[in-house]
Design brief:
The chain has 192 residues and is of the alpha+beta class. It has helices at residues 9-57, 60-81, 89-95, 124-136; strands at 101-109, 114-121, 140-151, 154-163, 169-171, 177-179, 186-189. The protein has a five-stranded antiparallel beta sheet with strand order 3-4-2-1-7, covered by helices on one side. Strands 5-6 form a two-stranded antiparallel sheet.
């Protein structure tokens, strides 16, 4: 049997490098466990003590008033988030109404975006123009004439409009628009 001669340079270097990395890892672990961990614990306790001292400087009634005020602000945010922007509706209806058309009643269903109106106009020609105004508006998805009849020289009509979502958005001061549909009912405007 013949002996094979293996040089000891590479295995020895690998062993020394591995041993060096192992020793560095142990030193780093000991440093983090006993040095940095105790430093962080001391900093944490010091910060908690400063907060406790700061909390004791403020009177309990002031703290209670602040918590109550904060709660009221949060409740107001929720209420405003559910507010329906019907304030946009009347200027919009005015912008798509023929000058010879008058409305007598409106029935708005916010969840379905449906607006039913009863109105009077001077002639069928004006009513056709009125319907064209509804159809040309990008804020009206559907305009349907439900009924029309001549009544004392004028044309009385019932129309059903399906409005777009954009009409029910609240414009915030930051420029964003918020949808205001959830949990909302129907608003009726009585006949005059």
């Amino acid at each position: 049997m013949q002996r094979v001669h293996v040089p000891l340079g590479w295995p020895r270097r690998m062993f020394v490098a591995s041993l060096g990395l192992f020793l560095i890892s142990i030193i780093a672990y000991i440093g983090l466990e006993y040095g940095y961990k105790s430093y962080l614990k001391h900093s944490w306790e010091q910060t908690e003590q400063e907060l406790a001292d700061l909390g004791s400087q403020v009177e309990p009634t002031t703290q209670e008033n602040f918590v109550l005020f904060r709660s009221q602000i949060e409740n107001l945010k929720v209420l405003l988030g559910r507010h329906v922007a019907v304030m946009n509706l009347f200027p919009f209806i005015e912008s798509v109404t023929h000058m010879r058309t008058v409305y007598h009643s409106m029935d708005l269903s916010v969840p379905s975006h449906e607006l039913k109106m009863t109105g009077v106009t001077e002639s069928y020609e004006t009513l056709a123009t009125q319907m064209k105004l509804y159809e040309d508006s990008p804020m009206i998805e559907t305009a349907e004439l439900e009924h029309s009849a001549i009544n004392g020289g004028a044309v009385k009509f019932n129309v059903r409009l399906v409005l777009s979502d954009g009409l029910f958005e609240i414009q915030r001061t930051d420029g964003a628009a918020a949808s205001a549909e959830e949990g909302l009912g129907t608003e009726n405007v009585p006949e005059q």
